[in-house]
Amino acid sequence: MAASLNRAAFYATVRSSLFGGRLKASQVAGMEAILDAAPSLLGTTSLGYSLATTFHETARTMQPIEEYGRGKGKAYGPTGFWGRGFVQLTWETNYAKATARLRQLGILRANEDLVKTPKLAMRLDVAAAILFYGMVEGWFTGKKLADYFGGGRYEPVGARRIINGTDKDELIAGQCGLIVDALRAAGHSVIPISPNLPVVTIAAAAAASADNPKPAPSGGLLRSGVQATGGAVRSGLAGLYDLIHTAFRKG
User: Fold this and answer.
1) What is the SS3 assignment for 142?
2) Which of 119, 161, 209, 232 is packed most tightly, with the most Cβ within 10 A?
């Protein structure tokens, strides 16, 4: 696990495009934790949307935060299971589900329990794992990254349904475009195709990618719908790896 890219180049780009020309050490630390936790086969647009979601949900701090008001006025508020982390995990049942899955993944030890200690969701490695596995596996609403990205799809507005309906969907989509631009400028790539991946899966992924050769819109061209810079070959490979990632998750 860990995203493959030139991190210095990435930070240089997002510093000017998203952070007003200045990055705090805490913001870099948060993004480092996210990039370190990113599944190696996660495609560029999926990673970009995950970072954009964090940018929005943490009010640009890129650090795990507690929900403002601690759930005041909401049914889960009095229970203590208000939103925490990069994506605001709520409700006791979701804390329990996250505990079971993160133990299975080896991120939480057997004696670590998000239900007994909800503040564990604020720990960087735990928050990053909840971000990625929650969005890849559809923990929050049943919607997943693969429903909106990969295989020629680039639907950052609709992807808000992974987390929270349509709230601020266009705003986050624009931020996603800028982050995708930065990831591409930094040379983000996924790991090479595993020799253990079944040949039929590789062939199917390649065929689907060939049917959708268009690159995703860049941040600057998102509203106009004009295609992003970069050749069809590079886009095809990105789509191929996104599909392979999806195949691994479904396997």
Assistant:
1) coil
2) 209
